[in-house]
Specification:
Lactate_DH/Glyco_Ohase_4_C, L-lactate dehydrogenase (NAD+) activity, globular, 309 residues, L-2-Hydroxyisocaproate Dehydrogenase, Chain A, domain 2, 2 domains, 3-stranded antiparallel β-sheet, oxidoreductase, alpha/beta, 6-stranded parallel β-sheet, binds nicotinamide-adenine-dinucleotide, Rossmann fold, binds (2S)-2-hydroxybutanedioic acid
């Protein structure tokens, strides 16, 4: 397997590190536009191979897409991160141009690749990658809900005093401070509904803290997060290259599913060797569906901004 990660910044390098350590690829290409950055980080990571004992060969490239040729999976992390006080949506002006150019270059050199989009605003960047490449919809996957669901489990685990690994909990909808929908009614601790163990007030707090999870970290760190985002990107790569058929919330093109079409939005999907293989219907109730529709309206208005750029 050959995997490329575009963007050797905080998220891209962390994602690549996770991919290498888990030996998800024989060859891993790290590409960045900044002279020397990807080569340097690739060498640094390769020098951990003797210590950690992995076999993945990591190659760095300053914007030379010929090195990425024939990739099976490409992860796009290139673009500006937000600063404290900003929304992800404010990044659209710069990041749309970056993601469009990267997607076109990837298509030229790896026409059969499955593309995972991480750059923000992720739902709109995923829609852009889909429309700019014209690739089959199952090969374009936006990573946001996978991370948001991990953060939801973290928040739940703090209140329940339990292991996040014992929780099943998903966040659907957009990857925005106000557009994501943590489905607390459907979350379970092993098979018991978490709502049995939490007061109404705790439930509201968990949902609110999950929704601003990225903003909270951005305020603390001064730029946005990378450990969990990088690990979430690598988890999707693993499910593809090992054909694990794991269920993750990902941003995918909807054609009537969850009551929406002509939009990419976060829903539970099976991830395997063909990309996202199936959308799973979690049966939203009327309140959850209303939130999902509101989220779709907000993402659609960001997608409309693309036409003005
Ligand atoms: N979807 C998510 O869940 C999620 C999570 C975390 C971060 N993000 C987003 O991921 C992006 C990257 O975040 P980061 O913290 O790694 O930022 P960063 O600044 O550390 O890294 C971004 C890298 O992209 C590179 N780059 C810029 N233009 C490029 C181009 N045309 N081609 C190749 N490389 C290019 C830069 O040189 C830089 O090294 C941001 O947009 C951020 O908002 C999304
Ligand atoms: O918060 C951000 O801007 C980065 C990312 O989308 C995240 O959720 O960590």
């Amino acid at each position: 397997m050959k995997v490329t990660v575009v963007g050797a910044g905080a998220v891209g390098a962390t994602c690549a590190d996770n991919i290498a350590r888990a030996e998800l690829a024989q060859e891993l290409v790290l590409l960045d536009i900044k002279e020397g950055l990807a080569e340097g980080k690739a060498q640094d990571m390769m020098q951990t191979a003797a210590l950690l004992g992995f076999d993945t060969r990591i190659v760095g490239s300053t914007n030379d897409y010929s090195k990425t040729a024939g990739s099976d999976v490409v992860v796009i992390t290139s673009g500006l991160p937000r600063k404290p006080g900003m929304t992800r949506e404010e990044l659209i002006g710069t990041n749309a141009g970056i993601v469009r150019g990267v997607a076109e270059n990837i298509l030229k050199h790896s026409p059969n690749a499955i593309i995972i989009v991480i750059s923000n605003p992720m739902d709109t960047m995923t829609y852009l990658a889909l429309t700019a490449t014209g690739l089959p919809k199952n090969r374009i996957i936006g990573m946001g809900g996978t991370l948001d669901s991990a953060r939801f489990k973290y928040q739940l685990s703090q209140h329940l005093g339990c292991s996040p690994a014992d929780l099943n909990a998903v966040v659907v909808g957009g990857h925005g401070d106000t557009t994501m929908i943590p489905l607390i009614r459907q979350a379970t601790w092993n098979s018991a509904p978490v709502t049995k163990f939490l007061s109404e007030e705790q439930q509201k707090q968990i949902v609110a803290d999950t929704m601003v999870g990225g903003a909270t970290l951005t305020k603390l760190i001064g730029t946005s997060a990378w450990y969990a985002p990088g690990a979430a990107g690598a988890a999707l790569v693993e499910s593809i290259v090992r054909d694990q058929k794991k269920l993750f919330t990902c941003c995918v093109s909807l054609n009537g599913e969850y009551g929406q079409k002509d939009i990419c939005l976060g829903v539970p999907v099976i991830i395997g060797k063909s990309g996202w293989e199936k959308i799973v219907d979690f049966g939203l109730n009327a309140d959850e569906q209303a939130l999902f529709n509101k989220s779709a309206d907000a993402v659609r208005s960001m997608n409309d901004v693309l036409k003005t750029l």
